[in-house]
């Protein structure tokens, strides 16, 4: 392995979120039927992406989408002379007050007037209204209430967004399970007919069980992500 | 927080993946190789972003796999120094506060990088910030699992070498055997020391030092 270019580009959390979300299921399901569990090398990837999703769902990028971010950066932030990394951080963190903005933008008070800062915050409120809901509803003390609102929002989002890919995968998995069950039934019938070869049949059963375990595991992974 | 790094690598595509799309097979192989791994002096590998170039495959004698030299862009977790991140307090100690980010836990705020006026509350086991030095009621708490913002100050890479065959263990076993033998003889003068369980003291390969001492840092509700 050779590193050709350490920092080719910065990317926003939102982009990573969408990229992982759209590609992870492809790598989590077995590449083909009867692919044995022991050959599964995507274990680390599965855990990492699951944790990443959990993190992103708790941060502003959960409510963002690429189009509004692009629109926001080109229309609003281009008015001000901000560094690239400052723009990235504004999008990633969505500062809710000028104090938070000051912490992101270096020497903010010298470079921008208070009015400009207020404008940045109000434009953020306009483009990413979901982020400001917690602040307005919860106030200062109600951390828990804010969290609850967040959790509900997540579930709602998950319900709406999970569907197309996952339903497809679940269908495939169900088909696989059905096939396995058919095989098992056939084998049982054979077993009744040929009681002599018990040892061999036991081994086959194990294999089949192993196969269904794989399927169950993958289902578990998929469902766990929804929570 | 996340960057794209351009890397080149030699990828082995096993025969069982010959019937699926080549790019997908390569991405699959690289994802399993780099996901959640610390790349020295770079950061934590996450996943492949896109494949830029795939050269012709190479075969090796007595090997069914094909080897491709590829150039890809990898998503890497590498916050720059000075970046502000959102995280949650994992645990507190007298030395400082440990932060977790779900997927990355090696972030530490030393006590001298907290706000001025912070003190360690022994009975509650957490750090407290007295925002107004003369008013004891102005305390705010760094509770466990509090969502806070912090600034990255330093990144530390440690080169962890693989441990060789466990020679030390054999010596220890011999010692233990001697001790057991001595004890069985009824030699009460040689006290058998109870060794404390070994702690894993190897430093993490990639750790971040953060600070929490300027305006806007700490819990978001403090600055509402």
From TrEMBL, chain A:
Write out the GO MF terms.
nucleotide binding
Give positions of region: Disordered: 137-227
Stored InterPro entries: HRDC-like_sf (IPR010997), RNA_pol_Rpb4/RPC9_core (IPR006590), Rpb4/RPC9 (IPR005574), Rpb4/RPC9_sf (IPR038324), RPC9 (IPR038846)
Q: Where are stretches of biased composition, namely Basic and acidic residues? A: 168-183
* Residues annotated as domain RNA polymerase Rpb4/RPC9 core: 1-131
Compositional bias, Acidic residues, is annotated for 184-207
Q: Which domain of life is it from?
A: Eukaryota
Q: List locations, semicolon-separated.
A: Nucleus
User: What biological processes does GO assign it?
Assistant: transcription initiation at RNA polymerase III promoter
Pfam families found in the cross-reference section: RNA_pol_Rpb4
GO CC, one annotated term:
RNA polymerase III complex
Q: Which UniProt keywords apply?
A: DNA-directed RNA polymerase, Nucleus, Transcription
The family this protein is said to belong to = Belongs to the eukaryotic RPC9 RNA polymerase subunit family.
Q: List the protein's name.
A: DNA-directed RNA polymerase III subunit RPC9
Organism of provenance: Saccharomycopsis crataegensis
Automatic annotation (TrEMBL), chain B:
Domain RNA polymerase III subunit Rpc25 as annotated: residue spans: 83-223
Which terms does the UniProt entry file under GO BP? transcription initiation at RNA polymerase III promoter
Here the segments flagged for biased composition (Acidic residues) are 167-177
Question: Which GO-annotated molecular functions does the record name?
Answer: DNA binding; DNA-directed RNA polymerase activity
Is Signal one of the keywords UniProt gives this record?
no
Task: Please tell me one Gene Ontology term that the record gives under cellular component.
Answer: RNA polymerase III complex
Q: Where is this chain compositionally biased, Basic and acidic residues type?
A: 185-201
Chief location of this protein within or outside the cell:
nucleus
Which region ranges are annotated with the description Disordered?
161-206
Query: Is Transcription given among the entry's keywords?
Result: yes
The RNA polymerase Rpb7-like N-terminal domain sits at 8-64
Q: Where in the cell is it found?
A: Nucleus
Keywords annotated in UniProt: DNA-directed RNA polymerase, Nucleus, Transcription
Entry similarity comment: Belongs to the eukaryotic RPB7/RPC8 RNA polymerase subunit family.
Role:
DNA-dependent RNA polymerase which catalyzes the transcription of DNA into RNA using the four ribonucleoside triphosphates as substrates.
Protein name, entry field? DNA-directed RNA polymerase subunit
The species this protein was found in: Saccharomycopsis crataegensis
